Amino acid sequence: MNSVGNPAPAPAPRLEIRNLTRSFAGRAVVDDVSLTVAAGQVTCLLGPSGCGKSTTLRMIAGVETPDSGQIVIDGAPVFANGLALPPERRGVGLMFQDFALFPHLTVADNIAFGLTAAREAKARRVDELLERVNLTGFGPKHPHQLSGGEQQRVALARALAPRPRVMLMDEPFSGLDNRLRDGIRDATLEVLKDEGAAVLLVTHEPDEAMRMADEIALMRAGRVVQQGAPYNIYNNPVDRAAAAFFSDINVIRAESRGALTVTPFGEFLTPGHADGAPVEIVIRPQHLKIDFDRAGRGPNPTPMDGTPARGIVQRARFLGRESLVEFRMEFGGLVLTASVPGVFLPKPGTALWLMIRRDRCFVFPA
Ligand SMILES: Nc1ncnc2c1ncn2[C@@H]1O[C@H](COP(=O)(O)OP(=O)(O)OP(=O)(O)O)[C@@H](O)[C@H]1O
Ligand SMILES: [Mg+2]
C-alpha cells in the first residue's frame, strides 16, 4: 500500500512476449504466442514434438527472428517494430539439451566464461556458484572427469554466472539418466529460485512440467492453448487433448438432451450443449472409484459419486505404484480403465461396481 492507501501497482513482468509469430515455408510454426514470466517464476512451455517450443525460445534468445510480435524484458523491448537487440545484449541465459561444456577449459573457467568482471570478483562468483550447485572443490577439474549429472550442474552454473534476467532452458534434463533426473531437477529448481531469474523451460514431458513449473503454457501446433498453474491445467483442461496430455483418460460418449446427458453412471448436467449434440465425458483412471458387488447390488448413489454402474473385470495389471483394472460395463459395453494405488488384482470375470466422481469429470463437445 502507498501513502494514499492504493495498492502498489503490480511490478512489470520480467519477460513479456506479445503475439509472436514465425513461419517456415508458409507454415506458422509459432502462431500468435503471448505470455509473461515474472522474476523468480518458472514457466514451462509444454507440448508435443514439433509444436514450436524451441522456435519460441530461440526467438526470445535472439538467435531466430520473429516475423511479427514483440519481446519485452523488464519493460524494455528487445524485439519490436524494427528493433532487434543481439543475443548478448538481452540479458538472457541459455541452457540447452546438449549443454556442451568447453572440454579444454577447467570447470572454473567454464563457469567464468561469460563473466566480464575483475579477476577477484569473477573468482568469488565462480566459488559462490560451485557451492550453490554442490560442486565445491571441482573448480580445477576438467569436464571429462565429471559425471553427466555433474556436467549438467556446471552448465547450469555457467548459464547463471552473469546473473541473467531471463533464463531460457530447452529440455535441459533430457540427456540425463532417468534415476538421476528427479534429484537434479529439484536441485536445479532450488538454484533457479535462489538466483531469482525469470525462467522459461521447454519440455515435452508433463511430469517434468508438473514438477518444475509455477505456470504451464500448453502448446499445440504453434499456439498456446492453455496457460495456468499446474493444478489448474491438470484439473480444468480446456479440451480432451489437453486432458489426455497429462494422463490416460476414459471417454464416455453420449448425447446432450435438454441440457442433460444420460450415461451408465446416471445423468450429467451438460448446459450449453445443443439438443442432440454429441458430448464426451472425460475422466482420469484414478478418479474411478471401485466398490464390491453385494449379491447384484452396489453402493447407494450419492450426490458426489453419482450412480454406480456394474462392470466385469477384463484384465488387471500391477505396475508397481498402482494397479490398472480394465472393465467392460454391463450397460452399453463401454470399456473403462481404473487405476488403484498399490496391489489390486481382481480375477477376470469378477463383477465390481464403479462410480465416477462428478467433480473430476470434464464434459467436452465431441
Ligand atoms: N529453421 C527451420 N526451417 C524450417 N523449419 C523449421 C526450422 N526450425 C524449426 N522448423 C520446424 O518448425 C516446427 C517446430 O519446431 P520446434 O523445434 O520449435 O519444435 P519443438 O516444439 O521444439 O519440438 P521438439 O519437442 O521435438 O524439440 C517443426 O515442424 C520444425 O520442423
Ligand atoms: Mg525442441
Shape: elongated
Mean pLDDT reading? 91
Radius of gyration: 26 Å
Name the structural class.
alpha+beta
CATH C-level class of the largest domain is Alpha Beta
Low-confidence stretches: none
Termini distance?
Answer: 48 Å
Write out the strand line-up for the largest beta sheet, numbering strands in chain order: 7-8-9-3-10-11
Which key terms come to mind for this protein?
about 375 residues, alpha+beta, Rossmann fold, 5-stranded antiparallel beta sheet, about 35% strand, elongated, binds adenosine-5'-triphosphate, ATP binding, ATP-binding, ATP hydrolysis activity
How is this structure best summarized?
The protein has 2 domains: 15-244, P-loop containing nucleotide triphosphate hydrolases (Rossmann fold, 3-Layer(aba) Sandwich), CATH 3.40.50.300; 247-365, OB fold (Dihydrolipoamide Acetyltransferase, E2P) (Beta Barrel). Helices cover 22% and strands 35% of the residues.
What topology emerges from the helices and strands here?
Elements: E1 15-24, E2 27-37, E3 42-46, H1 53-61, E4 68-73, E5 76-80, E6 83-84, E7 92-96, H2 107-112, H3 119-132, H4 148-160, E8 166-170, H5 178-195, E9 198-203, H6 206-212, E10 215-220, E11 223-228, H7 230-235, H8 240-246, E12 250-257, E13 260-263, E14 266-269, E15 278-283, E16 288-292, E17 309-318, E18 322-329, E19 335-341, E20 351-356, E21 362-365
Helix pairs in contact: 3-4, 4-5
The structure holds adenosine-5'-triphosphate (ATP) and magnesium ion.
Magnesium ion (MG) is lined by residues 53-54, 170.
